[in-house]
Amino acid sequence: MLLTIDVGNTHTVLGLFDGEDIVEHWRISTDARRTADELAVLLQGLMGMHPLLGDELGDGIDGIAICATVPSVLHELREVTRRYYGDVPAVLVEPGVKTGVPILTDNPKEVGADRIINAVAAVELFGGPAIVVDFGTATTFDAVSARGEYVGGVIAPGIEISVEALGVKGAQLRKIEVARPRSVIGKNTVEAMQAGIVYGFAGQVDGVVGRMARELADDPDDVTVIATGGLAPMVLGESSVIDEHEPWLTLVGLRLVYERNVSRM
Hints:
5-stranded mixed beta sheet, alpha/beta
């Protein structure tokens, strides 16, 4: 089985693939202070509960693919693969790793690995032109051309960041649960804040995607818009431009990149 690990700024998502099928997944908090040994214990605890894997760390794992936006965590995971999975092929997404997607930006090395991995999966699953909207710590919009090239994107504050900022900076506001309110016009402070978050972000998605699609293709209707990320379900029902919801897009991209690189190792 293939273990895929997507390390974001707030959460880390792990997926277990049997061939092309994801058979298990976990979401944990990202903690830059965790050491390689702590991460190994965490992995053993999660995977030790799966019936298709053995009791010992590494039993049943045939390959590992990792991407991380937090350099310190990537460093520790590199040590995990060396010390605890020494005989298992591992692909860590970084400059020099073959993705199959040309990066047409001013400085390709500064583009987040997860954004490139999302583009890889988008091209494979839906083709181009496409726009990937990833609802994470930041809300990112990534454009893929009709030829399968990563051409750039947009980065905006994420939903949780915005909720936290309102609670910290608003003297009479507090941090709230991100949930859909009864109506757009809130009847109390909590509902008013929820409406601002849910409908505000839906409007942001529609506006940004519309502008990007007009730049990306002669006919904006030809652009496939894919939503992913843990908070995507909050906006799906309110946005008018999202065509596909693929919650495991990054994990699928990691599987594809692993397959494109493992034969070269």
